[in-house]
Structures are given as C-alpha cells and as structure tokens.
Design goal:
Length: 423
Amino acid sequence: MNSQIDVFVHRDVVEFADGVYWIGALDPTLRTFDIILSTANGTTYNAYLVKGSDGVAVIDTVKKNFSDEFFARLESEVDYSDIKAIVLNHLEPDHTGALPELMRRAPQAKLYISRRATSMLKALLKPTTGAFEYTTVNTGDTVELGDRTLRFLHTPFLHWPDTQRTYLEEEAVLFSGDVFGCHYCDKRLFNGQVGDFRFSFDYYYAHIMRPFKKHVMDALKLIEPLRLKLIAPTHGPILRERPRRYVSHYRELSTSSLATEIGNSDQSMIIFYMSSYGNTARMAEEIAEGAGDLDGVRVSIWGETEPFVDLIEEADALLFGFPTINGDAVKPVGDLLSSLAVVNLKGKLGGAFGSYGWSGEAVRMIEDRMRGLKMHIPREGLRVKLIPTEEELEACRSFGLQIAEVLTGKSSEKRGIDFADLM
C-alpha cells in the first residue's frame, strides 16, 4: 500500500487500511435524528472489521433496519466462524441494532464492552436473547488477534456513561465511537473526498458533545499521545487526511476563552431579562449594580434572550428576569431555558426576578426550570408588583449582592447545596 492508503471496494465493502474494512450502512434520506437533531445530509452508521492472523474483530454494528446491508458486507469478507471478538464502543440502538443477530450467528465470539455498559447491555438484549457472556474492559486492556492488537480507552460520558474508544495499534487507527463524528452521509466516505461537512461536524459537537466538555478534555488526554493515521467514527466521514487537526479542533471547542478575558480569579455573572414597561429592566439594572459592588465579580446584562450558549456555558451565575403575563412566564424565557439542554449547568448559581400585574408566577416557574437543570438557587426570587418603589429597588441591589457573596465564597452559605444537586 502507498503512503496515502489505497482504497479497495469489493461488494460495497471498503478496505481503508491493511486488513481494516468499513462494513457499515448509508442513510442519506434521514432528516431528523433522535427527534432533536437536524440531519439535512442524512447520516451513516459506521461499523468496522479488523482481520488478524488469529481471528477477526467486528467493531460496532448498525441501526436495526440496516442490518441486511451490514450482514451482506460482513459475509462478503469473512465467515462467521472467523469472528473472535465483537467490540461495542457505545450501546445506543443506532450502533447495536444488529448485535443480537450477530451474536446468534457468531456464538463463539467474545463481546467486549466498557465496565459501565453492563446494565445497558442487559436492557438492550433481554427481549431477544437468553443468557449471554461479555467481558468488560478498561483503559489499557487489549484484545489480541495474532498480529493485531486492539487497545481500549475508557472515556465515559461521550456522550453516554458507557462510551469507550478502541485503538488498533499496528495501523494507528482510532475507532472513536461518536467522538469526531457527525451526521453527514456521502458514499465517498473519506474526509478528503466528501463534500464540505464542517458545519455538520461542529453542529454535531454542539448538540452531542458540548454538555460533556470536561469529559471531552479527559478523553483528549488519552487520545492526543496516540500515533494517528486514521480516525474512524461511528457517524460521518472517516478522517483519513490530517486526522490530528480534528483532535485539535475538539480541544479548541472544549476550551473556555473567558479566563483569558477576565482572569481566573474573577467570577462571571450574566443577567438576562425582558421587560414590557421597563419595570423588570429597572430591577435588572439594580441587581447588576448590587452584584457589581463586590470585588471579583464581573456582571454582564443582556436585554434580550438569544441563546448565547458560549456566554451561558462559561458564566458562573445566571439570573433571569421576566414579567408574568396571563399567569405564565413569557414564551421567550421558556425557549431560552429549553435551549440550555445542550449546556452543562450543574452547580451554576441561578436566580429569578420579575415584575407582575396580577399574580407573579413567572419567577417560581423559572426557578423550577433552573432546578431541573441542576442549578443551585441560593436566594428566593424577587417579585415586584408593577412599578418598583425605592425600597424594592434597594431589595434588588441587596439580592444581587447576596448572590455575588455566595458566588465568591464571601457568604456563610456553602455554594452548591440545593435539592437539584441531589438528583
């Protein structure tokens, strides 16, 4: 093989490294994935075959309704009796749909999963199989295929607790699971040949990996030292040209830039608000002034509700001010809080405030939603009927200062004690 790694096509099977094959499936007409993801270019369910001198390994499978394609490709290369190992990097149904039938056809094969995947595997297989055996693996564990070695990397929460990566040492191929993947279907398969998939790559990261940035960084510590000729994800193009740039891009996407702007010692508070007649706006301004009186707190105030995900994700405290209309929180706050499902908010401080005419339910509704997002609410929200008085504006300043004191540790209250933290 030449330095660019030749591609051989045989009955739709693609060999992209010596003895390493793509045996997955293409789904070009898919337009929505898992209800919430737009897939304008469809997707692929990438599964792989590794041939060694002492047996064969299958790495991941496909969505159930694409099983026929998967088995046809698999059978064109090997007999089921040759299969020594079945590796699952992730147990979501789009990667394990063909697993029960594969286990039935290759009963001698050993199944390898991460140590966090056992309960998920039992739930997955119980309707279709009886007793089955599996082996759990951790970082550094290996499977030998004679002249081939598969080494496992334990990388949980990317994006389920069970996720891991598999590295083929001799060919320097990383089977990366959902990491470095995207929903982009192109039968040419390789990043240097397919169309422009940059948007799909970043969109996938934003919706799938972004909430788990800490775990991304932990995984990169294991991945970056590896020799990498190829990255083979479970969705989207196989990364054959300059694979390391995608690793670097993940680090860039997962690294906070806020510290370079305000310093590591400062705390960031963002106040979002909407105001019908200026009353909630007055409250927001006074809360910001009160919080800003404390050294070490940087306060930003935004009079609109666009989902500034980067700002929200890097902030230490988030306050939301909205009026109550017809006994409810206004729609924009619901849209804003719903959009935060892609952000890890656990442990961030939160607060709510707002003006109202008749009732004032919006503040409590916002607080309940923040608790559902596992935020910590250190102070009961502020409600002001119609136009705030001077006393009420002073209460707003005090509210902002009290939250800032919790934020900086200058309050006697221990930050982070909240019912949401116990969920």
